[in-house]
Write a structure and sequence with these properties.
Blueprint lengths: L4 H11 L4 E4 L4 E3 H18 L5 E5 L4 H12 L3 E4 L6 H11 L3 E4 L4 H5 L4 E4 H8 L7 H4 L6 E7 L7 E6 H14 L7 E4 L7 H12 L2 E4 L8 H10 L4 E5 H9 L13 E5 L5 H10 L4 E6 L9 E4 L13 E2 L3 E6 L13 E7 L5 E2 L5 H4 E3 L9 E11 L5 E6 L3 E4 L2 E4 H8 L5 E9 L2 E8 L4 H8 L11 E4 L13 H8 L2
Parallel strand pairs: 1-10, 3-4, 3-5, 5-6, 9-10, 9-11, 11-12, 12-13, 25-26
Antiparallel strand pairs: 1-2, 7-8, 8-18, 13-14, 14-15, 16-17, 17-20, 19-20, 20-21, 22-23, 24-25
Length: about 500
């Protein structure tokens, strides 16, 4: 019986000890070596982090980064990836949320770490110490399936990022279904596009851990040079990609396939945003025999809760989000918290099952969205309220409609527009801000005094990640209001289309 993701890792290492597990541009590691490395490093990590605590890692995406992730797991802890490009204020907020004293990091981030409320543990020093330490399985034996594997941060409406904590059991439940449904095996080569703080990467990493496939880490810069990206996919004989929609659109909009078509690619999955049909048609034209899958689901339910395998032939006007994964229940609730079963009637999409995350780490927000199913009064059934609106189509499949709040999906990230509005409003010349999301762009409308865009952006760069900074800033004398006295966002969006 396998209770933790480490059980799966060790089984795979036993089957394929010499086979490549993970590879970046410069280095690779076999499954056998990977386990040995992770165990060795865990002996050192255990000296700094108590069992059950978070281990933040700030190392550029590489084989080494993954070794520290699993070293954290072997030490009875869980990992959380920190992006060094994030503003100091955001990183300090993440540190405060996790309550950590130390961070594992690259020495080239020494100046960055000096501005943060945490003590650095440079990996070169840790690896020297690991040579003198002996691995103990004491903590490893005490891990149970409800313990956390990772914490990924999402945007928070108050400006404080939320850390979604996901358990061993949730990862096991989802990845077991995921790899079986889509036929991922030890023969596959997976091209990882997603950053390690984005839950799409969980599918890459753990699909390999569970099957013995090899994960090739694609450098971020390659997505700015389609020819380099396509050469990489061909050279590494990539069979499988699980990418954000925005990443796929880079190749199709820049006519990348006119240069080269990856000959081994046969499984193409996408998520994070609505896939434009025109872009998908380009992919299908050049790679017609691949399996295409639309995936849907927020971080809080362990990657995805629904899928739709794109059929051959002409694409529908709207691509469904499909059907639930096995062992996951989708419940649509209306405004009265009653189940919606009729076709073409909208309801909030809620998810029940083992896939549902533990909750938000050190946050009262957990109690707001991880709740008892209001339509089930006779037994306990924990659900996650996504805030997404969906409906059943005439074909019985689920279709995404939109958000019931101010949260959006942009560049693969879930973003609270309220967090951006709060940041913009801190400018001394701005009295109020309202953001809208239209044509895949964030636009900030503001009142107060007309202010140079560069000045606003300069301020935001020390407060927000780059993907949250609006594309445009529009000064208006006053906001249009609804009859209820609220800002009329519909009117603002219509003004963009004039």
């Amino acid at each position: 019986m396998k209770y933790t993701v480490l059980d799966y890792l060790e089984e795979t290492a036993g089957k394929f000890p010499q086979k490549n597990a993970f590879a970046d541009v410069q280095n690779s590691v076999s499954w056998g070596e990977f386990v040995t490395r992770a165990k060795s490093l865990s002996a050192v990590i255990s000296k700094y982090f108590e069992a059950g605590n978070a281990v933040p890692v700030m190392i550029d995406k590489s084989v080494r980064t993954l070794e520290y992730f699993f070293a954290a797991l072997y030490s009875g802890c869980f990992y959380s990836y920190f992006d060094a490009t994030f503003p100091d204020s955001r990183l300090n907020s993440m540190i405060e949320t996790l309550g950590v004293k130390y961070i594992i990091c690259d020495r080239r981030f020494e100046k960055k770490i000096a501005t943060l409320n945490v003590t650095p543990l440079f990996f070169d020093e840790l690896e020297k110490l690991a040579e003198k330490e002996e691995y103990s399985d004491e903590r490893r034996k005490n891990i149970i399936d409800t313990d956390p594997v990772y914490a990924n941060f999402t945007s928070g409406s108050t400006g404080t990022p939320k850390a979604v904590v996901v358990s061993h059991r949730s990862v096991i439940d989802f990845i077991s279904c995921f790899t079986e449904i889509f036929g991922i095996t030890s023969e596959d080569n997976i091209a990882n596009q997603a950053p390690f703080d984005f839950d799409v990467s969980v599918k890459d990493i753990f699909s390999a851990v569970f099957t013995g496939a090899t994960v090739h880490l694609v450098p971020k810069m390659f997505f700015s040079f389609p020819t380099k990206l396509l050469d990489y996919l061909e050279e590494r004989e990539i069979t499988t990609i699980i990418w954000a929609v925005s990443a796929m659109c880079i190749l199709s909009t820049l006519n990348g396939f006119d240069y080269k078509v990856p000959s081994k690619l046969n499984k193409i999955m996408f998520s994070g945003e609505v896939m434009p049909c025109r872009q998908l048609e380009i992919w299908k034209k050049f790679i017609p025999n691949a399996k295409y899958v639309n995936l849907y689901g927020p971080t809080e339910i362990t990657c995805n809760c629904t899928y739709y395998i794109i059929p051959d032939g002409a694409l529908p006007d709207s691509i469904p989000i499909g059907i639930p994964f096995p062992n996951e229940r989708i419940i649509l609730l209306n405004e009265d918290n009653e189940p919606v079963t009729e076709k073409n009637v909208e309801g909030e999409l809620c998810v029940s099952g083992t896939c549902v995350a533990i909750g938000y780490y050190n946050s009262q927000k957990t109690a707001e969205v991880f709740v008892q199913n209001p339509s089930q009064p006779f037994r306990y059934e924990r659900i996650y309220r996504t805030g997404d609106l969906a409906k059943y189509g005439d074909d019985g499949l689920l279709y995404y409609v939109g958000r019931k709040d101010t949260q959006i999906k942009h560049m693969g990230h879930r973003i609270e527009l309220g967090e951006i509005e709060g940041a913009v409003s801190k400018h001394e010349k701005i009295t109020r801000c309202c953001c809208v999301f239209c044509d895949n762009k964030i636009t900030a409308f503001y009142t107060g005094s007309e202010t140079d865009k560069k000045e606003i952006v300069s301020m935001l760069r020390i407060m927000l990640p780059s993907y949250m900074i609006p594309s445009d800033f529009i000064f208006i004398k006053e906001f249009p209001l609804t009859k209820n006295g609220k800002i009329d966002k519909k009117s603002l969006m219509e003004s963009l289309n004039v």
